[in-house]
Amino acid sequence: MQSFDTRTLVERIADELRSQVIDGRLEPGRRVRQEDIAGRLGVSRTPLREAFRQLESEGWFTSHPRQGVLVSAMSYEEVCEIAAARMVLEPAAARVAAVVHDDEAAGRLRELVEQTSATPEVHDFDGLNRAFHLEVYGATDHTPPNELSRTTRHYWERFTRYRRYYWRAEEHVSLSAEYHARIADLWCARDGAATEAEVARHIISAITDQIRVLHPGSTPDPALAAVCRRYDIELRL
Questions:
Q1: What is the pLDDT of residue 31?
Q2: Residue in 169, 233, 226 with CA at minimum distance from that of residue 203
Q3: Which ranges constitute the DSSP H helices of 117-159?
Q4: Alpha-carbon torsion 22, 25, 29, 31, what sign?
Q5: Which domain holds residue 189?
Q6: Domain end among 38, 53, 71
Q7: 70: enclosing H helix or E strand
Q8: 70 pLDDT exceeds 80?
Q9: Where does the record place the HTH gntR-type domain (predicted)?
């Protein structure tokens, strides 16, 4: 397993297991025996259990009383359900945060955009992307939590495993970085309406590509399409 000094052992284990799901070594629906995984990775059961708890909270694995731990299926229905919630919550949260943020938050966001422009590795981009979006939504630890930010953060995190597939292609990372730069300019200018619209376009651009990769030939989901029309966006798969 590749080693990164900046990550804890639990984080390295979690990243390796995510990679194994993404590249097909751990297929959806497969039962996972933690003792086998511990042996293959050369780690003890304690950090492995912590990694599995984290991954279950993100939706990568599911525990069943009789079947044990299974690799979660990636259903089209779940993709659309979470995507519709994201399209309702995230643009609205971004609009609010764009209006009420302070200068320190703007400085953090500009710094994140500068770091992203260096075209980092996908692993590095994952952390930068997360920090960027939570800052834009006013959902970081720097900001007092509220119901909107908590709920927005929850659904953003739930989409992590689908997002990882999208970033397997370098052009997707570059496209996200371009959206981030535009969003940051609008957000720092405190243009709430324009920020909301650009965030909506960013989200649906990534989601439609993710659906094409995971579920090619799918029919547009009516609920997701209805939310898209709110921003004059036609859902095309």
A1: 93
A2: 233
A3: 122-136, 147-158
A4: negative
A5: 76-229
A6: 71
A7: strand 68-71
A8: yes
A9: 7-74
Residue position matching structure tokens 């284990």: 13
d(CA 170, CA 156): 21
User: Is there a single domain that holds both residue 85 and residue 53?
Assistant: no
CATH code, domain carrying 147: 1.20.120.530
**Structural domains in the chain (count):** 2
Which is higher by pLDDT, 233 or 67?
A: 233
SS3 218: coil
Check whether residue 123 and residue 39 sit in a common domain: no
Residues 29 and 223: their CA atoms lie apart, in Å, by 27
Lowest-confidence segment of 26-30, 86-90, 117-121, 198-202 by average pLDDT: 117-121
Report the share of the chain in percent with pLDDT over 70.
93
- 82-104: average pLDDT: 97
Q: Are residues 171 and 136 in the same domain?
A: yes
Write down the pTM of the prediction. Answer: 0.77
